[in-house]
Automatic annotation (TrEMBL):
<protein>
    <recommendedName>
        <fullName>CoA transferase</fullName>
    </recommendedName>
</protein>
<dbReference type="Pfam" id="PF02515">
    <property type="entry name" value="CoA_transf_3"/>
</dbReference>
<dbReference type="InterPro" id="IPR044855">
    <property type="entry name" value="CoA-Trfase_III_dom3_sf"/>
</dbReference>
<dbReference type="InterPro" id="IPR050483">
    <property type="entry name" value="CoA-transferase_III_domain"/>
</dbReference>
<keyword id="KW-0808">Transferase</keyword>
<dbReference type="GO" id="GO:0008410">
    <property type="term" value="F:CoA-transferase activity"/>
</dbReference>
<dbReference type="InterPro" id="IPR003673">
    <property type="entry name" value="CoA-Trfase_fam_III"/>
</dbReference>
<dbReference type="InterPro" id="IPR023606">
    <property type="entry name" value="CoA-Trfase_III_dom_1_sf"/>
</dbReference>
């Protein structure tokens, strides 16, 4: 059912639905539902044990609560554009990233609210900020800034705790494979597949720190091997 909540009749129909509902979920900008007469206090008078969840951009309070927007706005605001892509290029378009994150938080919050109502007989209002949903996944980077004042930057396909870790060109037109090595044991296995086990004995590649310090050279050597094989062939050899 589609309702036009800009008209009083649409609001009245919505209120009738609420009187028979278990849960109300909305994602207007902060304060919009209340201005339409559909805020939690109003709905609670219609259905005392109603559960209401607001999944808005930046919650119901604070200086940006009333700002409307979409998922790609939040992907930028929460920092995902800052850390995605290559350091010498503009960030790529990520799309509405938080649109895929927020529903998982919403479902869990609603399940908890249903359990709370089962135990107490009371409804609940949940103010779920999609901005906070997104920042949650960047917690290590936030802590790194708070503690060490390090600002996370774009690093392409590389990763702080792995080397080699990149997408490597393979034989053929625009053919690539992704290789990620997290441990020295994995590095030894990769060198064995490549046919250069002696690489593990080089001081500049002997452990993760040294491989990170010489990552440009390392990536070049790995790609000298992958470029002579198909992407499917590289995958098969590494998974054998």
């Amino acid at each position: 059912v589609a309702l036009n909540l800009a008209h009083s009749k649409g609001v009245e129909i919505a209120r009738r639905f609420v009187a028979r509902a278990d849960i109300v979920v909305e994602n207007f900008a902060g304060g919009v539902m209340k201005r339409m007469g559909l805020g939690y206090e109003e709905l609670k008078r219609l259905k005392p044990d109603i559960i209401m969840l607001s999944s808005c951009m930046q919650g119901q309070t604070g200086p940006y609560a009333t700002h409307p927007g979409f998922g790609f706005h939040l992907a930028a605001l929460s920092g995902f554009y800052q850390i995605t892509g290559w350091p010498d290029r503009e960030p790529p378009y990520l799309g509405p990233y938080t649109d895929f994150i927020a529903p998982h938080f919403n479902v869990l919050a609603i399940l908890a609210a249903l359990d709370y109502r089962r135990r107490t007989g009371k409804g609940l209002y949940i103010d779920m900020s999609q901005y906070e949903n997104g920042v949650h996944f960047l917690a290590p980077l936030v802590l790194d800034y708070v503690v060490n004042r390090r600002v996370a930057e774009r690093v392409g396909n590389r990763y702080p705790c792995a080397a080699p870790h990149n997408a490597y060109r393979c034989h053929g037109e625009d053919r690539w494979c992704a290789i990620a090595v997290f441990t020295d044991e994995e590095w030894e296995s990769l060198c064995g597949v490549i046919g250069n086990p002696a690489w593990t004995e080089y001081a500049r590649f002997s452990n993760l720190q040294s491989r990170k310090e010489n990552e440009e050279e390392l990536d070049g050597l790995v790609e000298e091997w992958t470029i002579n094989h198909s992407a499917e062939g590289v995958m098969s050899m590494l998974q054998a």
